[in-house]
């Protein structure tokens, strides 16, 4: 009986975090030229994930507004609504919106930028001055 408990623990320890799975699914969608069904995503991942797991991840990404879908046969084909950089920017906005003191959050963000990132940000904010 102790052995079966150890086996369940081992299986649980082998699970990847959902964020990692979502990132893998997004990478597969970005690499595809057309909307992808869960089965197509599963094949492109080649990681041994069950199709139901891929479907669950795609549904969660759809609920978050990260992917959209269209009917294809009896199911759906999914596609990203933004490229990787757009998704990163969206996450940054989400984090900023979580705090009521935007000025302090932005000030601390800028204070932690590298010199190169600060230069890029200045160029973006003041395009005519450089």
**Count of individual beta strands:** 2
Quaternary assembly: single chain
- Biggest β-sheet: strands ordered side by side in the sheet: 1-2
N→C terminal distance: 71 Å
Low-confidence stretches: 2-14
Number of helices: 7
Radius of gyration: 20 Å
Residue share in helices? 55-70%
Structural class: mainly alpha
Q: How confident overall, as mean pLDDT?
A: 86
Large-scale geometry? elongated
Output the helix-strand order: HHHHEEHHH
| Major sheet size, sense and barrel closure | 2 strands, antiparallel
Strand content: 5-15%
Please name the defining characteristics of this protein.
130 residues, mainly alpha, two-stranded antiparallel ribbon, 2 strands, elongated, disordered N terminus
What can you see in these coordinates?
This protein is mainly alpha-helical. It is built from seven helices and two strands, in the order H-H-H-H-E-E-H-H-H. Strands 1-2 form a two-stranded antiparallel sheet. A hairpin with a 2-residue loop joins strand 1 and strand 2 (75-80). Helix 2 (18-31) crosses helix 3 and helix 3 crosses helix 4 (51-63).
Protein topology:
Blueprint: H1 2-14, H2 18-31, H3 38-45, H4 51-63, E1 67-72, E2 75-80, H5 84-97, H6 102-111, H7 115-125
Antiparallel strand pairs: 1-2
Helix pairs in contact: 2-3, 2-4, 3-4
